[in-house]
Amino acid sequence: MNLFFILGASAVLFLSVVGFILFRSRSSNIGEKALSLASMGKYLDAKALIRNKLDLHPDDISLQLLMSKIYSMEGDTDTEVSYLEKILKINNFTKEITKAMILNRLAAILYQKDKYDESFFYYMDVLEEDPSNLEAIVRLGFMALGQREFEIAEKIFKQIPEDQVRFPAFFIGKGVISTILNRSDEHQYFEKAYKLDSKSSINVFLYGMSLYRQKKFQDALKIANELLDKLKDDRIRFTLYQFLIVVYMGLSDYSSALLNAKHCMEIAEENEWIEDYAESNFYIGIFCIASGEIEKANEYLIAAESEKVHDQDIINLANYRSDLEENLAIPGSTSSRGFNFKSFMTFLPDRIFPAERIYEISGLKMPAHINIKSIVNSEGIKIIKQIDKITPDMAMRFAMIRGMTFKNVCNKLTAEMNFKVKRELPCLESEGANVVAVNKDDESLVALFRFRKWKNSNLSDVFLTEMTNSMIEQGAQIGFIFAFCDLTVGAKRFLKNNEGKITVINGKEFENYLSKVIKQ
Q1: Which CATH class is domain 1-97?
Q2: If you count Cβ atoms within 10 Å of the first and of the last residue's Cβ in the chain, which end, N or C, has fewer?
Q3: Span 7-60, pLDDT tens digits
Q4: Which residue intervals of the chain bear CATH 3.40.1340.10?
Q5: Which residues, in sequence order, are CB contacts of 213 under 8 Å at separation 6+?
């Protein structure tokens, strides 16, 4: 989330404001001399000068602020934080040294130190003092967005008058929120981001995607081709070729869609991206059939199915191709198996570019976990008054459990599903646990349980495919996954195509189970 030039600017502004305030204060002469010494790198002398005064006037926040600035100039932000906290504790603010100013600086430092829980807490405090503080609103909004808290982010961003904002990332964030929450107005935001910075490949791509979603296919095609000429990274080019596939589908130009599918396959093969290679072969098979090349489609569908053996879409298309070859199906009509190729084609763009992928491409997802829900409610309103009241959420608590206690929790979760553990399977404790269990009422029903200590992670169809193979090895008919995770598009498709085979218990449902088995 390197979008916050605001942070750098605010830090400079903070220090300059501090200097201005101190030179106007009753300690101005000492302040001027101390800052001069600090600017020459004589930090010990500068601090000694101020400390003598502080011993006499410990509650003078201008002196405390001056010390914090010297430590900041020295690069010691830990000690700077301690002085800012002293100022908050003294709680004797002035017109020049406001509580919002101190809180803002404190929150910014904590953000830089990756202490996101504390930073979020203090930025919320800033808004209590100064509801229109732009830096706090922007920071909070993007932290919420980075944690997939889209509705909270939406409420926070609504506090910013759009005509006062001139940085593209804000509009990218608004566009992502609109896309995920189906607000249907994402185009205007992606367009604004594009107009503010048309050199950013992300801005250009998301603007092109919004044109496509508005069915402005020719405009989207122009944007995509212009971007393609500028890109060298294979992963980005692969994504752009995928985009060209769906654009050409919108134009009913299947020969061009086929050409771009082949470009995808070539890039995936060259980089040994096995899953992407299989997916690209699937695309090629589709467009071969659309172009009437039934026999040619076979080799590509075989290649796709060999890697994605449980992908029902690939299986259905391969069966349809076989029916066409054997004259058991008529092109343009629903087959005897109930497969309609035209209807199938309408779902392909959503398979390639679902709304969730817009979020991933935006780069706004944060890898770090922030315990937002222990600080604010679903309306974005602060629910705790003290920073030490931030409690580890269930994901964090589950991840911290070790040894026999962790095994007992897993056994209890297994029991909650009406199963009892039969044997454990190898698994690093830092990752989680794997167990085979039998149903309490019917011991012939065997299940594979996987417990994962994930936070803000993705569950993919690759994981599910591997788990299915493990289930076969262990003689298990069904499987359960307990994890705090997001499901990739491929995982959602896998679960839909294999309904009832594997149950994923995540999010709020997992929290509810944990609250039953973990001692409060």
Answers
A1: mainly alpha
A2: C
A3: 444 554 454 445 444 444 445 578 888 888 999 999 999 999 999 889 999 999
A4: 394-517
A5: 186, 187
